[in-house]
Design goal:
It is built from 11 helices and 17 strands. With 475 residues, the protein is an alpha/beta fold. It binds zinc ion (ZN).
């Protein structure tokens, strides 16, 4: 580290020190523009130089193919695993013991892209929440540290994986470094996983384990391919990041599908509410960036580590650059007709990766400072009315201030209006018909932190068939 950076870090640490006294003091702090000071500090402290250093270090291991060397200190996925583990431990030092780091190892049996049983290791850093009622609520941010060249089972070729996905891994590590010293109500997990290119194996293991243990993962972000700003289409875009969210939940039940076909909701999954939350919060704190909401689970013919979470009912989104360059993904390093192929660090825009990390961090911090999203939210359908009756369960967190009802026209992509209805558990929107708008409810705490919106489930009659199964029309 250069002396100037050390000085800057010391200053930042000194400035941030009073905010560490306790969570209450910290969260009371808003700056003159009404922005949360902790989030503003985090945004400022994220440093593209650290991200560049991480990307180059990961590339220096030659290959990070999941089938590559496990025990060579210089080359292969094992060297990358150990380096990352040590770096997360360093990041944890400023947390006062609240951040713990573990290697979550498991033996992956033979599957399509794993020719023989292989040990995979997720590197997991957990920053424990400080509010007793919220500490069991978990937010996961992840990148995959494995890489591949043309063939996913070629463990020998050089596979730098600078963009796919050292960029995402570096963003996660930088967030851990910066956020470790701050306190959040809820718990944040910073994770680097292998086996993505082998079939999302590391993420699947983590998600399945979380499901078995009934861990309350309230949101998951995967950062995958977040560093290229000059697309194969010749378009340069340094200010936009895509956030992919599914519409119809991957784990939707037949009963939920029936309701959705009747009264809509295909644009209102928990993951889509999460995506809207990200756009609203990130663009407030990271003004130089635009969040492009993509209303689909992932790109055509592609997948990512958010999918195993979605399949198990955890809200999740994917962050990816806007214009991809396929000559620099999953390619053996070579020059053909004067064109360079391969996922090399010279094609990564480190300042852009840092901005994507800021978008992530602003959203994560906003989630973990806010109360839980309302549970048990219902839209009452028993009476035919031009009003809209909503009810929900009381949030038991000690700093809850109340709730907001949000709404939008049914053709609007994002929430457009909100009304603070106070600390109540039901509310009637007079003169606004549930048939004409979409409604939602969010929690708000005493410091003005707002949760993700919960989209209500109908309670009562949702379709004519509820009364007369053979009838499909109603007056
Ligand atoms: Zn990837």
């Amino acid at each position: 580290m250069k002396p100037i950076n050390l000085l800057a870090l010391t200053l930042v640490t000194l400035l941030a020190a009073p905010l560490q006294l306790n969570a209450q003091t910290q969260r009371r702090s808003r700056n003159s523009t009404g922005r949360n000071r902790v989030i503003a500090n985090i945004i400022r402290e994220i440093d593209a130089k650290n991200i560049e250093r991480t990307v180059r270090q990961l590339v220096s291991f030659g290959s990070r193919n999941t089938l590559s060397e496990q025990n060579d200190p210089k080359r292969g996925i094992g060297a990358a695993r150990d380096w990352l583990y040590a770096e997360f431990l360093k990041a944890a030092e400023s947390s006062g013991g609240r951040m713990t780091v573990e290697k979550q190892s498991f033996e992956q049996p033979k599957v399509d892209r794993i020719p023989q049983p292989t040990v995979l290791t997720n590197v997991v850093a957990t920053l424990k929440g400080t509010q007793p009622e919220a500490a069991e609520r978990v937010y996961v941010v992840s990148g995959h540290y494995d890489s591949m060249c043309n063939s996913p089972t070629d463990a020998k070729c050089d596979a730098p994986g600078a963009n796919d996905d050292a960029s995402g891994t570096a963003a996660v590590l930088e967030m851990a470094r910066v956020m470790a010293k701050y306190q959040f109500d809820a718990t944040i997990v910073f994770m680097a996983v292998p086996g993505e290119e082998q079939g999302l194996l590391g993420a699947t293991h983590y998600a399945e384990n979380a499901k078995q243990k009934a861990i309350n993962i309230d949101a998951m972000f995967t950062n995958d391919i977040i560093g290229n700003t000059l697309g194969g289409n010749g378009v340069r875009d340094r200010v936009t990041v895509r956030v992919f969210s599914e519409g119809v939940p991957s784990n939707e039940t037949p009963a939920e599908a029936t309701t959705r076909r009747s009264v809509g909701g295909e644009n209102d999954s928990a993951s889509r509410q999460l995506a809207r939350f990200i756009k609203e919060n990130a663009e407030k704190y990271v003004a130089q960036m635009k969040v492009m909401l993509i209303y689909r689970r992932d790109r055509y013919g592609r997948g990512g580590d958010h999918i195993p979470f979605l399949e198990r009912g955890f809200p999740a989104v994917r962050f990816t650059e806007v214009n991809e360059e396929f000559k620099h993904q999953h390619q053996n390093i070579r020059v053909e007709d004067g064109v360079q192929y391969g996922d090399l660090p010279e094609f990564v825009d480190f300042a852009y990766v840092a901005n994507v990390a800021r978008v992530n961090a602003a959203s994560l911090a906003a989630l973990a400072l806010a109360p839980a999203r309302p549970k048990g939210v219902n839209i009452l359908t028993a009476r035919l009315s031009n009003d809209t009756d909503l009810k929900w369960d009381a949030n038991k967190e000690s700093d809850i201030a109340g709730y907001e009802v949000v709404w939008r026209e049914t053709t609007s992509p994002v929430w457009t209006d909100s009304k603070n209805v106070g600390n109540v558990t039901s509310y009637t929107m007079k003169g606004m018909s549930k048939d004409n708008y979409f409604f939602g409810v969010r929690s708000i705490d005493k410091d003005g932190n707002r949760s993700v919106v919960t989209y209500p489930k109908p309670l009562g009659r949702t379709r004519p068939a509820d009364r007369a199964p053979s009838t499909t029309t109603s007056p």
